[in-house]
Write a structure and sequence with these properties.
This is Ribose-5-phosphate isomerase A. With 218 residues, the chain is α/β, with parallel strands linked by helices. It has helices at residues 3-13, 30-40, 54-62, 100-108, 140-149, 179-187; strands at 23-26, 48-51, 76-81, 85-86, 92-93, 110-118, 131-135, 153-156, 167-172, 192-195, 197-198, 205-210, 213-217.
Length: 218
């Protein structure tokens, strides 16, 4: 089974957490694209979606799923999204697709966070995948210097502007043994909009696509 087929297994398995008549939080990325396809198959049973990126919004609209503004929704029953890395405590690195800020906002208003991944994303210690940090453009160099002090090797993701008009620094050479503490330290740097550590708001359910089908941990 290919990696994409495993992603599809995880994406379609997440449908079981979608309640009839609900507004669904939808993330961003290749695994989520499979979930969006799955959501299209039950679009008449749901009210619509709150999306974390323009790319996901376009895909949802193309399937005829109504998009709701985050400001008009008090809470979401469920948010389905992928991860670039996830540890046994269900803490994650996200932001490979540069949608980390909106993803974190949608996660914050959701009662349940269902993380859909293929088996390659599971790690014991976060940090092998470069940690994305969304930064206000004028603070880029300052934030980079501060990230070096925290033991990282920040690299400017050239040519990328987030949906919020900001830039991304990808921080290499990290071993994040205390993700909640590290999340706080990076968030405290002036000019940081969001760090792609989802430690304070981790996943409630992890669905892993495997050659044997979807494995669910909750």
């Amino acid at each position: 089974m290919t990696q994409d087929e495993m992603k599809k297994e995880a994406g379609w398995a997440a449908l079981k957490y979608v309640e009839k008549g609900s507004i669904v939080g939808v993330g961003t990325g290749s695994t989520v694209n499979h979930f969006i396809d799955a959501l299209g198959s039950i679009k008449d049973d749901i009210k619509g979606a709150v999306s974390s990126s323009e790319a996901s919004t376009d895909k949802l609209k193309a399937l005829g799923i109504e998009i709701f503004d985050c400001n008009d929704v008090a809470y979401l029953d469920v948010y389905v999204d992928g991860a670039d890395e996830i540890n046994p405590a269900r803490e994650m690195i996200k932001g490979g697709g540069a949608a980390l800020t909106r993803e974190k906002i949608v996660a914050a208003i959701s009662n349940k966070f269902v993380c859909i991944v293929d088996g390659t994303k599971a790690v014991d210690v976060l940090g092998r995948f470069p940690l994305p940090v969304e930064v206000i453009p004028m603070a880029r160099s300052y934030v980079a210097r501060e990230l070096v002090k925290l033991g990282g090797d920040p690299v400017y993701r050239e040519g990328v502007v987030t949906d919020n008009g900001n830039v991304i620094l990808d921080v290499h050479s990290l071993q994040i043994t205390n993700p909640k503490q590290f999340e706080d330290k990076v968030n405290a740097i002036a000019g940081v909009v969001t760090v792609g550590l989802f430690a304070h708001r981790g996943a409630d359910v992890v669905i892993t696509g495997t050659p044997q089908g979807a494995k669910i941990e909750s």
